[in-house]
Amino acid sequence: MYRYDDYDQTLVNERVEQFRDQVNRRVAGELSDDEFKPLRLTNGLYLQLHAYMLRIAVPYGTLSTLQLRKLAEIARRYDKGYGHFTTRQNLQFNWIRLEDTPDILAELATVEMHAIQTSGNCIRNVTADHFAGVAGDEIEDPRIYCEIIRQWSTFHPEFSFLPRKFKIAVTGSPHDRAAVKVHDIGLRMHRNEAGEIGFEVLVGGGQGRTPVIAKTIRPFLPKRHLLSYLEAILRIYNQLGRRDNLYKARIKILVDSVGADRFTQLVEEEWQQIRDGYLDLPAAEIERIRGFFAPPPYRTLDAHVPEYEGALRRDLRFARWVRTNVTPHKRRGYAIVTLSLKPTGGIPGDATDAQMDAIADLADRYGFGEVRVSHEQNLVLPDVAQADLYELWKQLETLELATPNIGLAGDIIACPGLDYCALANARSIPVAQQISRHFSDLTKLLDIGELKIKISGCINACGHHHVGHIGILGVDKHGSEFYQITLGGSADENASIGDIVGPSFGAAEVVDAVETIIDTYLHVRADGERFLDTYRRVGLKPFKEKLYAAH
Amino acid sequence: MPLIRATGAVDDPWRFVQDEEPLPEAGAVIVTLARWQANRDQLTARPTPLGLRLKSDQPPSLIAGDIERFDIIALEFPKFTNGRAYSSARLLRERYGFRGELRAVGNVLRDQLAFMRRCGFDSFEIPPQVDAAAWLSSLGGISVVYQPATDERASVLTLRHGTPKGQGRGDARAHSRDPVAPTPSSPTRVG
Amino acid sequence: MALQVVTANRLGDGRVVFLADGYRWVEEIGLARVGETEEAATALLAIAEKAAADRIIVAPYLIGVSTDGDRITPTRYREVLRARGPSSHPEFGRPPSATAAAHR
């Protein structure tokens, strides 16, 4: 993975001292709260319901074990012994003191980490496929370009006061695990007819108040033009994005209001002025960064792994875990392991400091010292030899990280919701816990099959409910928590926004509603048809009828 | 309003004339775009230097053909959160070749000065009673810049690979000269 | 008539606090000063604004509460969560306090 050189390290070190000074000025009264707020936001520090929340950047979801151990240490020393992995591959600590933040950032800087631009109206963490570098269908490792974009966007002097936040995602595979179509800018790597690799550029996707699927504004962009093209897009957005209404300020609103064609034209006109100039991406920099993402020293392994195959036959629980939580690796004899942070009845995406330390040990022992964070709030060990899977699984079980539910109804994505978040209208965690407990029968879960349930506590959609197969949105109705259900959303290359089924459900009814939806699916599905495909075939009607039959 | 440049606090030789105010016969004045468009002949006939003040929703393209007329362009930040003028500044410098003084006015915060300067601003209108020296110290906060911008600072790309392409405009045209030296185009320009 | 208390977050550690007697800020809502009239509530908020200017707390505001003997309970569920702690982590919570202090 990427390692800082002196320039990178100097920047984060100086940033820590700059923020320390800003905190001191705030405490001394030289900065008002209004003036301090944007400064603390661009260092990822929110004031939430119970305390300050610190959002630490995990660039493109990749962590070294050294970094993971440092996060565990911070959880222990400065928080309440746990952290929350988010839908943008970052980590959040919920119980942070402002006074400690400069020291925390200083600690992070020692392991090449930071909280820069994880909030604020600027370019945020650039996210990627959590299977980058190891997926069989990958064209090129997207993280190379995520790192390039990360640097270009850090303290960009022109784009630090955008109309609103800006999120970029990159996929290097045709199967999009990075949800590029619901980002402000999505980049899909692919080959043109000449066999060259470049980017399809999509703009104006997003969730929140007005969910939109991104539009392609350039089918193929050669790599050397990456930064100049992004600069053109951001410049158009910075100039023309709305400044009068926070809820209408994302780039998706701009693209929608001027139309995709006109927007494309504006970008292309600007780009013609700045292309082939000082923003040309030097091939030398691409190669320099590519070197950090070179394959680790894989052993040459046989396709036939007797200890693994034997364990599959002997131990049905192991076999069940492999079926859901293990994904084929592009290298023979290896596997990709997803650690479920969704134990039955647990809080989705949370991990204790003890778990983080243990995972780091496992990544060192059964991998090459690297861990990934997925936007579905799970962790990944990307390079496990198949021969080690059985031993690994046993240890994961003792750590409660082996619930065999990845991609199933128990693998719920949920934002922190009203339990933690000052923006929320309703709680999301208890709903996730109830659904999880209700569908704890693993045989039943497997029978239901692939089902992505995503829960947001408010319209900001941090739980990505719009792209859930079943999406649940918490709302406040006359002072009580109600939940609106959507169906048929998807975040992959066939992205779609979920359809609202009808009136919302009270907190006591929502689990039954989900049960009714699943029963309806089981009743009408064709053989082997997954939920999303059934929904796309039969539409809203059967579900709506069953849900509101009593009314 | 107090004024600072990278070199320190300076006196302001310019006077901003509101639209309702009568135009003085002489003296360095800054006028709004509306005034420029309405009184163009009268303004160009004056013997003294002329400046323009643009609102955040008035893009530089509106005055592209008249850049040479102005010794100073003031760009408004109506709220510090409104960052449009960062783009306007860069375009004025890099697209339209503006070589006069570029001034940030309005809701300007200390922690924005470094960004503004990188976009080509020379001078900054700051609130009264602030410590100008403390404000200016913010300019040096981060010594490393990842990306090329309008200014002459070498980006990390350049430092790593030595390519001149990674170096912004790479010259001092990013900023107008300090007030002591009069520019050839307007010998009567006030220091 | 609406009873109100002032709540805010402490600047240094961000913790939820309530304005209590003697200009103190406490984490126990049961110790909060209750404004029983609109004027009383406004006066409490003014005290809080001064505390914000003095950098003790940030973003103070009034919340509606009901009292039941010594217990003070916010009207809005969001404020109940702020006062008690997250429902998802009861181990981090604060039980409602037994001591109330009402003021006109």
The poorly predicted ranges of chain C are 97-104
Q: Tally of extended strands of chain A?
A: 21
What order do the SSEs of chain C take from the amino end to the carboxyl end, as H and E?
EEEEHEEHE
> What is the number of helical segments of chain A per DSSP (H or I, 4+ residues)?
18
Number of H- or I-type helical stretches of chain C: 2
Spatial order of strands in the largest sheet of chain C: 3-2-1-5-6
What integer value in Å does the Rg of chain C equal?
Answer: 13 Å
Strand composition percent of chain A: 15-25%
Structural class of chain C: alpha+beta
User: What overall geometry of chain C do the principal axes of the alpha carbons give?
Assistant: globular
Q: In percent, how much strand structure appears in the residues of chain C? A: 25-35%
Structure characterization notes:
The complex is a heterotrimer of chains A (551), B (191) and C (104). Chain A has 551 residues and is of the alpha+beta class. Chain A contains 18 helices and 21 strands. Chain A is 37% helix and 18% strand. In chain A, strands 16, 17, 18, 19, 20 and 21 form a six-stranded mixed sheet that branches. In chain A, strands 1-2-5-4-13 form a five-stranded antiparallel sheet. Chain A is globular and about 60 Å long. The model of chain A has no long low-confidence stretch (mean pLDDT 97). Chain B has helices spanning 33-38, 40-45, 84-94, 113-118, 132-137, 156-161, and strands spanning 3-5, 8-10, 15-16, 29-32, 50-54, 72-77, 101-106, 123-125. Chain B has an eight-stranded mixed sheet with strand order 2-1-8-7-6-5-4-3. In chain C, a hairpin with a 5-residue loop joins strand 1 (3-10) and strand 2 (16-19). In chain C, the strands form two sheets. Chain C has a five-stranded antiparallel sheet with strand order 3-2-1-5-6. Chain C has helices at residues 38-53, 77-84, and strands at 3-10, 16-19, 25-26, 33-35, 57-68, 71-74, 101-103. Chains in contact: A-B, A-C. At the A-B interface, helix 1, helix 2, helix 5, helix 6 and helix 9 of A face helix 3, helix 4 and helix 6 of B.
